[in-house]
Amino acid sequence: MLAIAMKTRRMIGIVVAAATLATAPAALAGQNHTRPQPVAGKTDNPARISKFEARKARHVCRDRANEKGLKGSDRDAFVGRCYFGRLSHAGVRRECVRAGEAKGIAKAALRDFVRDCVKERTKGKE
Protein backbone atom coordinates (compact mmCIF):
# COMPACT_ATOMS: atom_id res chain seq x y z
CA MET A 1 0.00 0.00 0.00
CA LEU A 2 2.80 2.40 0.97
CA ALA A 3 4.72 1.62 -2.21
CA ILE A 4 1.67 2.44 -4.36
CA ALA A 5 1.19 5.78 -2.59
CA MET A 6 4.86 6.69 -3.10
CA LYS A 7 4.68 5.80 -6.82
CA THR A 8 1.49 7.86 -7.20
CA ARG A 9 3.08 10.84 -5.46
CA ARG A 10 6.17 10.57 -7.67
CA MET A 11 4.03 10.40 -10.82
CA ILE A 12 2.03 13.46 -9.78
CA GLY A 13 5.29 15.34 -9.23
CA ILE A 14 6.56 14.37 -12.66
CA VAL A 15 3.31 15.43 -14.36
CA VAL A 16 3.32 18.79 -12.57
CA ALA A 17 6.96 19.40 -13.49
CA ALA A 18 6.32 18.53 -17.13
CA ALA A 19 3.31 20.83 -17.29
CA THR A 20 5.29 23.66 -15.73
CA LEU A 21 8.16 23.24 -18.19
CA ALA A 22 5.76 23.07 -21.13
CA THR A 23 4.05 26.36 -20.24
CA ALA A 24 7.11 28.29 -19.01
CA PRO A 25 8.45 29.41 -22.41
CA ALA A 26 5.05 30.75 -23.43
CA ALA A 27 4.70 32.67 -20.18
CA LEU A 28 8.17 34.17 -20.46
CA ALA A 29 7.97 35.02 -24.17
CA GLY A 30 6.34 38.40 -23.57
CA GLN A 31 8.85 39.49 -20.93
CA ASN A 32 12.13 41.21 -21.69
CA HIS A 33 14.82 39.71 -19.47
CA THR A 34 18.14 41.51 -19.73
CA ARG A 35 21.15 40.71 -17.63
CA PRO A 36 23.43 43.47 -16.42
CA GLN A 37 26.68 43.66 -18.32
CA PRO A 38 29.86 42.98 -16.33
CA VAL A 39 32.13 45.91 -15.63
CA ALA A 40 35.29 45.90 -17.71
CA GLY A 41 37.67 47.10 -14.98
CA LYS A 42 37.75 46.29 -11.29
CA THR A 43 35.56 49.21 -10.29
CA ASP A 44 34.80 52.77 -11.30
CA ASN A 45 35.17 53.87 -7.69
CA PRO A 46 38.89 54.07 -6.86
CA ALA A 47 38.10 54.49 -3.16
CA ARG A 48 36.42 51.08 -2.94
CA ILE A 49 38.37 48.56 -0.91
CA SER A 50 38.40 44.78 -1.04
CA LYS A 51 36.39 42.50 1.22
CA PHE A 52 39.64 41.40 2.89
CA GLU A 53 40.65 44.98 3.71
CA ALA A 54 37.20 45.73 5.12
CA ARG A 55 37.30 42.62 7.30
CA LYS A 56 40.77 43.50 8.53
CA ALA A 57 39.66 47.03 9.46
CA ARG A 58 36.57 45.69 11.25
CA HIS A 59 38.65 43.27 13.33
CA VAL A 60 41.18 45.93 14.27
CA CYS A 61 38.38 48.22 15.45
CA ARG A 62 36.74 45.44 17.46
CA ASP A 63 40.06 44.61 19.09
CA ARG A 64 40.63 48.24 20.02
CA ALA A 65 37.15 48.43 21.56
CA ASN A 66 37.89 45.27 23.55
CA GLU A 67 41.19 46.72 24.79
CA LYS A 68 39.38 49.81 26.01
CA GLY A 69 36.70 47.68 27.68
CA LEU A 70 33.82 49.48 25.95
CA LYS A 71 30.31 48.04 26.15
CA GLY A 72 26.89 48.78 24.72
CA SER A 73 26.19 51.92 22.74
CA ASP A 74 29.61 53.40 23.53
CA ARG A 75 31.24 50.36 21.95
CA ASP A 76 28.98 50.52 18.89
CA ALA A 77 29.69 54.21 18.38
CA PHE A 78 33.44 53.71 18.79
CA VAL A 79 33.56 50.75 16.38
CA GLY A 80 31.53 52.67 13.79
CA ARG A 81 33.77 55.75 13.93
CA CYS A 82 36.90 53.62 13.87
CA TYR A 83 35.72 51.42 11.01
CA PHE A 84 34.55 54.16 8.68
CA GLY A 85 37.62 56.23 9.48
CA ARG A 86 39.83 53.31 8.47
CA LEU A 87 37.84 52.68 5.30
CA SER A 88 38.11 56.27 4.17
CA HIS A 89 41.85 56.24 4.93
CA ALA A 90 42.31 53.04 2.91
CA GLY A 91 40.40 54.53 -0.01
CA VAL A 92 42.51 57.68 0.03
CA ARG A 93 45.66 55.57 0.21
CA ARG A 94 44.57 53.53 -2.81
CA GLU A 95 43.85 56.73 -4.77
CA CYS A 96 47.33 58.02 -3.92
CA VAL A 97 48.95 54.75 -5.01
CA ARG A 98 47.15 54.93 -8.35
CA ALA A 99 48.15 58.57 -8.77
CA GLY A 100 51.78 57.70 -8.07
CA GLU A 101 51.72 54.79 -10.48
CA ALA A 102 50.17 57.02 -13.15
CA LYS A 103 53.05 59.47 -12.72
CA GLY A 104 55.49 56.59 -13.21
CA ILE A 105 57.04 56.79 -9.76
CA ALA A 106 59.29 53.81 -9.00
CA LYS A 107 58.46 51.40 -6.17
CA ALA A 108 61.19 52.77 -3.91
CA ALA A 109 59.89 56.34 -4.08
CA LEU A 110 56.23 55.34 -4.28
CA ARG A 111 55.99 54.67 -0.54
CA ASP A 112 57.20 58.17 0.31
CA PHE A 113 54.90 59.70 -2.30
CA VAL A 114 51.87 57.81 -0.93
CA ARG A 115 52.69 58.80 2.65
CA ASP A 116 52.89 62.50 1.72
CA CYS A 117 49.80 62.30 -0.50
CA VAL A 118 47.68 60.68 2.24
CA LYS A 119 48.84 63.24 4.82
CA GLU A 120 47.93 66.07 2.49
CA ARG A 121 44.51 64.70 1.51
CA THR A 122 43.46 63.82 5.07
CA LYS A 123 44.89 66.96 6.68
CA GLY A 124 41.52 68.77 6.76
CA LYS A 125 39.59 65.73 8.03
CA GLU A 126 41.36 65.41 11.38
Question: How would you describe this structure to a colleague?
Answer:
It is a single chain. With 126 residues, the protein is an all-alpha fold. α2 runs antiparallel to α3. The radius of gyration is 28 Å and the shape is elongated. About 5% of the residues have low confidence.
Class derived from helix and strand content: mainly alpha
Oligomer: single chain
Strand-residue proportion:
under 5%
- CA distance, first residue to last residue: 78 Å
Stretches where pLDDT falls below 50 for ≥5 residues? Answer: 38-43
- DSSP summary: helix tally: 4
Estimate the global geometry from the Cα principal axes: elongated
Helix content: over 70%
What's the story with the biggest beta sheet?
Answer: none
Q: How confident is the prediction overall: mean pLDDT? A: 76
Following the backbone from N to C, one meets helices and strands in this order, namely HHHH
The whole-angstrom Rg is 28 Å
Total number of beta strands: 0
In short:
By secondary structure, the chain is mostly helical.
Features:
single chain; 126 residues; mainly alpha; 4 helices; 73% helix; elongated
Helix-strand blueprint:
Blueprint: H1 2-28, H2 51-68, H3 72-102, H4 107-122
Helix pairs in contact: 2-3, 3-4
